[in-house]
Amino acid sequence: MLFNTFSFVLIFLPLALLGYFVLSKYSLRLSVVFLFLASLVFYAYWDIAYLPLLLGSIATNYLVGIWISREKAAHQARRAKLALILGLVFNLGLLSVFKYLDFFVVNLAWLTGADLKPPGILLPIGISFFTFTQIAYLVDCHAAKVSEYKPENYGLFVTYFPHLIAGPILHHKDMMPQFDRVASHVFLTGRLVVGMTFFTIGLFKKVVLADGVAPFVAPVFDLGHAQLTSLEAWCGALAYTFQLYFDFSAYSDMAYGLSYMFGVILPINFNSPYKARSIIDFWRRWHITLSIFLRDYLYFTLGGNRHGELRRYANLLITMLLGGLWHGASWTFVIWGALHGVYLVINHGIRHFLGERQHMFLNLSGWLLTFVAVVVGWVFFRATSLPIAIDVLSAMVGGTYLGDSGEGFLGGNRIMALDECMIWLLASAAIVFFAPNAYDMLGRGIRHVEEGRLSGMRGGLALGALLTLMFLLLAISETRGISEFLYFNF
Fold it and tell me: Which terminal Cβ of the chain has fewer Cβ within 10 Å, N or C?
């Protein structure tokens, strides 16, 4: 079920809110169970065939988590470690089969020349997110950082519908205590207003901005990549750069707003990453919860920076390689991850070399270098094969400025198509580089909720205006053709 549909906004969301807050008046635990079941319905709407997989993953990880914690409490370190290893094997095994088996078989056939055919297993939606969420939980059980084991809270923590499909990657200590917080179960008009405002901002980004710039992407990457001019290649690369930004930012805002309506605060997952002045800063702003997961559960596990600079750089490269592979079973994602690993090594090296002078360097050229490096990386991220990525990058670097033919990559006049693309790019750049993000804009609104200033007539008028705008955007989405969020593929 997509957030940008009438069925979600008019049926699922009102029923979920109504059931949650009505049941909260009688039993907080019952309302949590209800929201857990509603989240399962939300997931099953995509493909009910994968619901047993999700439930099996939840039950297995919950039981293994209890096993680990009991062995730790009994000072049975060896048994606790064994339980953790088995839990990790289970989770990584699921990912390997459903996400990477086809990739492995194809590459094995290429290496050996054997006549091997990939089984063609469909990727269960959200598997990367709910698997990483539970891996972190098991590791924290082993580190004795888990203190709550209510089954309904754990089930909701994993399946909570605002985050289930495309993140953020949740952490138990941030989420599970909120499900028992009495304040989270009290309906507030102001909370609904702020949540709907976040949601509507995200809906605008998705329907108007992301879907608006999207038509300039596919012709470059999917159709005419072998005959591109330099302008066309840059147009396609920048169009995808902004499409992905608005699309992921839209989902992050909508997820945050939906959760806020229920009185549950999600971690911020997207914070104006194209304003970053270094790659290090970029990864503190883009998919923040994934960055934290990779740092805490992979980079630190590998040794972090505790064993000298060379080992640190190797750990950075390995972490980003696996981060790239997490996004998809393709060599283009591996190269994208490797690129960002190299970027981070260079960034840390420059900081180490310049020392106190690094701030001058970052202020003068850091933003531009970072943005161009990110755009180059997105070419591999978007391309469906390495030859396509090389075609696009070659045109960006060495293609002719304009082609001789009057036919453009959009099938019409080349100059007019590029003019239209440039208008979209300039408008997108103005929003991305100069406009505040949703969290900046709505910080005051959140304070007003806490002060009770968005209730009564003021809150009702705000709700009416938001509903009108939301329905208008949904109508545009339905008329144009509803599109999925890009991160659903990962």
Answer: N
Q: Indicate if the alpha-carbon torsion angle 16, 22, 25, 26 is positive or negative.
A: negative
Domain assignments of the chain as residue spans, ordered by start: 6-186, 201-438
**Vertex 90: Cα angle to 47 and 88 (nearest 5):** 125
pLDDT, tens digit (0-9, with 9 covering 90-100), for 233-243: 999 999 999 99
Residue 350: pLDDT band with limits 50, 70, 90: confident
What pTM does this model have? 0.92
CA separation (Å) from 485 to 4, 92, 330, 350, 395?
9, 25, 19, 36, 28
Annotated active-site residue 225? The verdict is no
Tell me how far apart the alpha carbons of residues 280 and 283 are, in angstroms, rounded to a whole number. 5
Alpha-carbon distances of 205 from 213, 236, 343, 476, rounded to whole Å: 11, 19, 29, 13
Q: Which of 171, 172, 185, 327 is catalytic?
A: 327
Among residues 282, 247, 274, the alpha carbon closest in space to that of 165 is found at: 247
- The pair of structure tokens assigned to 37 is 């079941």
Rounded distance between C-alpha atoms, residue 219 and residue 448, angstroms: 46
Dihedral of CA atoms 170, 174, 178, 179 in degrees, nearest 10, equals 40
